[in-house]
Structure formats: structure tokens, C-alpha cells
Amino acid sequence: SLVVLFGATAGAYGAKLGSDERELILLVWQVVDLQSKKVGTLHKSLVKADNLDLSDQCREVSGLTPEGLGKAEPLDRVLQQFSQLVSSDLKVLGRSSYTLCSDGQLLIRQVLQPETSKKNILLSDCFYSFYDLRKEFHTCYPSSAAVKDQNIKTMAEYLGLGTDETEEDFGVWQVKTMVAIIFSMLSEGCNYIFTEPETVKYKYETGPCLVFFSFLSSSKSETVDSETVIRARGLPWQSSDQDIARFFKGLNIAKGGVALCLNAQGRRNGEALVRFVDSEQRDLALERHKHHMGSRYIEVYKATGEEFLKIAGGTSNEVAQFLSKENQVIIRMRGLPFTATQEDVLGFLGPECPVTEGKEGLLFVKYPDGRPTGDAFVLFSCEEYAQNALKKHKEILGKRYIELFRSTAAEVQQVLNRYMSTPLIPTLPTPIIPVIPPPYTIATGSIRDCVRLRGLPYTAGIDDILEFMGDATGDIKPHGVHMVLNQQGRPSGDAFIQMKSADKAFLVAQKCHKKMMKDRYVEVFQCSGEEMNFVLMGGTLNRSGLSPPPCKLPCLSPPAYAAFQTAAVIPAEAALYQPQALLPATRTPQASAAAPPAVTYYPAQAAQLYMNYTAYYPSPPVSPTTVGYITAPPGAVAAAAATATHTPLLAQPGALVRMQGLPYNTGMKEILSFFQGYQYAPDDYNGLIQLSDQARSVLQAPKEWVCL
């Protein structure tokens, strides 16, 4: 038997059903006995949604009203009635089992499955298997239109069924027509048999990606179909692979197909790559762009198989053996003492959360030379044991507290790959040159010759801004366009533009205010150079006035961002890196009076447009600013060094090292003791870093003590 099912939501209808995350408001169904070609009673049930605000399309197509829906039953009660009425109709027809049949995939996969998951409603088994009438119809009639172009009306017209949609209530006509189509497929001329239903996975299968194992066992590099991979962005930091699978509930994710992305520090960055079983599932996933996970909306974009393999793939046999155990829950432990052994970890977890296969269920993360990193992964055979382990979060082992998190197979591979690729002896990167164009510094005066653009599309680039400005582009000062990025290095939606005069800035603000750029209107305000500089240095400018930046350092660190990954264009008159830029100068009362001009950088794209597409955000207080600078060619360093008047750069590469992770109470003596035995001459480099007299006298001690 088939149960022909039709539904509608409070929002989009047809091909966009479920794409706007609106709730179900209507279910219509009828039982069909395929052998006797008899039908049961046709049932129509309204569903009371939490939000009764109906879209215009819904009102027009369905004829339903919020008043009528307000008297209906909630979804959980309607689903109970559905099961009871279907069972009753089956008994009348002398049948006991059935399979759902719907018009396409959307009702089951994009509406019922995700909505019941969000509302914690348990669906019966019948909703995990169904026939897609469009696919079955195309199989029965190969000369009909493609599946993606089919709908109930086109299928009825192909068969010449004379049905009038206006004669029946909304939903009733659709179900009756679907039943008529099924009977035509069962007629003597076709004798069609429904054999292979669509399936929805009950749960996400954890474990390593199958491509990972085939990659290990084959000399040829395996590939992942790019038509099956998406990138989800904006995930909560604490979300796990199961949370992501729940967000995509109703869609079939490949085994081990959720790969959480990590940042340079090995922490989750709010992004994930998800691999689905086929391109059809991927296309449905893209329709969930900006659907919500809790209170956050999630962006969903296309990705490539190569990107997925970089995150989820690996080449370690040790990792493959660790992840080969099926249906295990993975927990990551961080902050372990370097001397911790397997026995110490098992004792820390205790008997209430036994590790799968004891020591075999532990994987310590190590550097290439075998030194421990303080990280480990643990396998548990069930959710209960994993929950018991997570309760030990921040408990003490030895003298350190241990952090415990849920993890994934892809994260295991990423962490191992990251540490195993770490060089044993880190080297200092190529010297860097900030470009300081003397004629074009950022204004700091009170003249209102600047404009602020607020509400820019996040995809907007410098071309878009120039087009937006129109004829006023000629009134922009050279190097006068400043894009503002947030602390994650992404566009903040703000930009500042320096105009040639206050009158020009006023005219631009009047002409372009609330003008559209792409699909958003942009606010344009006149402001002064001082106000602009405050915001570029990390302060805020709002109706309450100016709020100073959290720190005022003599240089700014542009974050790593895709727009700046090309080679830099370095003008010949570029100055060498100032000593004050390596370490912040000692703060004085006079220094806080006004923010100094920022160091500007010239990416290649900006130089071609004669605009300074600059990324600004302040460095951490009293911290070397070493993130994301533009690397200068060796020739540029040599040429600039020949004409420099201040202290020259380091005489040899690698002569300066930066120490991270020092205890807060570390003093000069502890650092000297740490480097005892290295023989280099600190005298040659004293002029590079601003040192107190006490520190300078220590560094001029016997040369076998320290290496600077």
C-alpha cells in the first residue's frame, strides 16, 4: 500500500518549499491499495504553527487564514492522528504495511524532517522511507520531462487527465490527482511496480571518511566529487559533528562526511565542510542557506572535493588504525602534562567512563621528534560513557586542569597533520617592509573632508565602491579608500573615503546616502579625519560620540585575508621597517593625547587601482605585531638598507626569535637560563629593540649566555 501525502508551509510553495524555514500548516493524505486499486478515506488536517504570519503566496495559493489555523492542532498531535487514521484505513483495506509517496523530495526532507528535529518530535519509521512520485513517473514514462521540471500538473497533462484545480480545496486536488497518476502507472499498458523507495538516514554515521582509507591503500590520489560538498559558516564554536548533522536533518550525509575546520591555533573556527552522498542531497543542502542553528543563522556555500580532502583526509596509518573502530564517540583532551602516560589518562577518566579497548582507544598527539603536545584523543563505545567523561572538564591531572571536548574523525586528522608538519626548528620569516607613502597619510584633523560608508554588502570590493560613488570618484584623494575588517579578518560592512575637500564630502553624503549597492542600501555620512582615524584604530563612532580604541599603538596589523595573498607591490621610495614597529614604545601621558598615523600597506590589487585597500584593526596591547605583514623581496631589503639612516636590519636570517606561551611571572633570569649554551653576539642587535638600561647591561653579559 501507498499513503499519498501532500503538505504546505506558511511560506514558499512549489520548488522553494522549505527553503525559507517556515513551518508546516497543512497535511493531506489518502491510502492506496496497489493490488486491488482501492483507496481509503481522504484526510485533510490543518497544523497550528508557532508563527501564524502567512506569506502572500501562501494566502493566495492555499486560501488559508491565521484565524483558521489558530484553531488547529499542533504538529505533534497531527502526526499522532495521521498514524491512527492510516492504521484504521489499512485495516479496512485488509493491509498492514505501507510506504509514503509524495510529490518530490521537499515535503519529507526539507519540511517534516528538519521541523520535527527542531521541535524534538519523534517521527515514526514510515517517514524515513518514501517514493518520489516524480522520479517514479519519469522511470515509467522516460519520454516525459526531466525530473526537476516535473510537478503534479505537468504529470497530469502528460497523461491527459482532465482535472480542474479550481474545483477542489487546496491539497485535496493535489492528492486526488496524484492517486489518478498512480493508477495510470498501474494500468495494463504500464504495469509499473514500485520497488526502490528513497531513504532518509536515521542518524549520522561517525568515523573516518572512506576516501581516507582508500587513499592510504592506493598509490593514486583519490578524489571527492565536488558536486557533493558544501561549506557551512557561522557555526557556534561548541557545535559538534552531530549538531551539524542535525542542522541538515533529512539529508543523507556520507559516512564521516562532517569535517570541522580548525584555525592556526588548532581551535574550531566556526566553519565545516560537509560531504553528502550525491549531488541531489548537496543541492537540497544549499537551500538551507541562512537557516538557523539555535539563535544563529548558518551560511551554506558550495565547496570542492579538494577542500574536503585537505580537511578530512590524512596519510597516517596510526590515525587510520585508531579511527577504524566503528560507531565510537571521540573526545579530545587538551592541556595534558607532557609527562602524562596512558595509565595516567585512564586513571583520570576512571571506571565510570571506560575507554574502548583500554590503551588502544587512546591516541596521543606528538611532534615529529616524538615530543608530546599535551593533546590526546579518546574513544568511547557509547554516548553515556562520553557524557561521563565530559563531566571531568577542567578537573586536575597532576598540576594542570584538563579540557575535554567532543571531537570528530576529521578533527583528529587535522590535528595530527598540523603537528606532524610543524618544523623542528622554526625560522624567522623573510624581513618585511611596511610602505609609508609620505604624501598620503591618514588625516587626523577636525575638517570634515571624509565620508563613512556603513552597511556595505560583505562581498563588496573596491570596484563596487568606485561604481557606487559614480562621478564623485574623481574627487577621492589618492590612497584614500580604507576598508574596515572585523577581528576575524572579514569585511565589517564599513569603509572610509578621504575626499579632496569638505564640500566634496558633503555633496557625496547628500547624493549617495541610502543608495543601493547590490541588494542593500548603504548609509553615507560626512565625518572628519579624526573620527575616521579613531574607528580605523579600533574605536567606535555612534550617536553617543567617539569611544577611544582599546589600544593606540604606532602600527596596525592587517589580518590574514584572502584579498591580500598576492605578491605586494613595493614602491622604490619605501622606508625600512621602523624599530618601534617590532615592539610597542613605552607609553607616556603625551602619547595618549592623539593616535599616531597608521602604517599603510599596498596589496597588488589596490595599487593597480591607485587606491589603498587597507585592512585595519588594532594589535593586542603590548604585543609584537607580526600577523599578516607583506613580505618584501630580498632585493628590496638590500636596496632600502643601503640608504637607511637608522639601525640596520638583522645581519643574518634567524637571529631574532619570538617566544610565545611564557608563564606570566617569567623574568629576565629565567629567559637567560632557558637559552644558556647558545653563543651569539647580542651587541650587534641592541639598536634594533628599545631596551631599558638594566636589560641592555644584562644582554651585554658574556656571549655564551643568550641568543637574541
Care to describe what's here?
The chain is α+β, with helices and mostly antiparallel strands. Among the domains are: 2-199, Ribonuclease H-like superfamily/Ribonuclease H (Nucleotidyltransferase, domain 5, 2-Layer Sandwich); 210-312, RRM (RNA recognition motif) domain (Alpha-Beta Plaits, 2-Layer Sandwich); 317-420, Alpha-Beta Plaits, CATH 3.30.70; 450-537, RRM (RNA recognition motif) domain (Alpha-Beta Plaits, 2-Layer Sandwich), CATH 3.30.70.330. Helix content is 28%, strand content 20%. It is built from 23 helices and 25 strands. Helix 6 (152-159) crosses helix 7 (172-185).
The CATH class of the domain at 2-199 turns out to be Alpha Beta
Radius of gyration: 32 Å
Low-confidence stretches: 212-221, 424-440, 550-641, 643-652, 680-708
Q: What class do helices, strands and sheet pairing give?
A: alpha+beta
Cα-to-Cα separation, first versus last residue = 81 Å
Largest sheet: 7 strands, mixed
What's the overall average pLDDT, rounded?
76
**How many β-strand runs?**
25
Helix content bin: 25-40%
CATH fold-type name of the domain at 2-199: Nucleotidyltransferase, domain 5
Coarse morphology: flat
